[in-house]
Amino acid sequence: MDVSATDRQLLAALQDGLPLTARPYADIGAAVGLDEADVIARLAALRDAGVIKRMGLVVRHHENGYRANAMVTWNVPDALVSEIGRKLAAYPFVTLCYRRTRRPPVWPYNLFCMIHGKDRTTVEAAIRTLSAESGMAAYPRQVLFSRRRFKQRGAYFGTCAPSLKEAS
Fold first, then answer.
1. With contact defined as beta carbons under 8 Å apart, do 70 and 114 qualify?
2. Fold of the domain spanning 62-145
3. Where along the chain do its domains lie?
4. Contacts of residue 52, Cβ cutoff 8 Å, sequence gap at least 6
5. pLDDT tens, position by position, for the chain (168 residues)?
6. Count of alpha carbons within 13 Å of 110, Cβ hemisphere only?
7. Is 106 helix (H, G, I), strand (E, B) or coil?
8. Strand 94-99 and strand 111-117: pairing?
9. What is the reported pTM?
């Protein structure tokens, strides 16, 4: 797909995220000279062409009172990863669950899940619950608590269009 100058402007306008308004696509469109329907159609075309893989949101857990998080990794049989992953993802305190390729001999783990909690004790209790209720206690695991936060942001596409903050 040829990415047009308009598409590049649209992508650049999205790099700071969607505005928290009733009509975010209309607001993005106003910044780049498109109407709401055109923004939605262009984004769908960019997604269908593989230019955009997905749109998601970045949740600022710390600002919402979740002060502790841990990535829990398990080494489970490959034939069971999908089944167990679905089980883990169903828990309300699991905020992310996915499969990764092992990197032996250094990293034998293939199932990852992120748990956020108000404090470390809460996260540790959630990990014990997962292990006991889902049968995961039988599999080797690593628990990696975050020690610091990094800036979270979406994709950066360049500076060919003003962000909404600059346009308003």
1. yes
2. Alpha-Beta Plaits (3.30.70)
3. 5-57, 62-145
4. 11, 43, 46
5. 789 999 999 998 888 788 889 999 999 999 999 999 999 999 999 999 999 887 876 677 777 778 899 999 999 999 999 999 999 999 999 989 999 999 999 999 999 999 999 999 999 999 999 999 988 999 999 999 988 776 666 666 655 444 444 444
6. 15
7. coil
8. antiparallel
9. 0.63
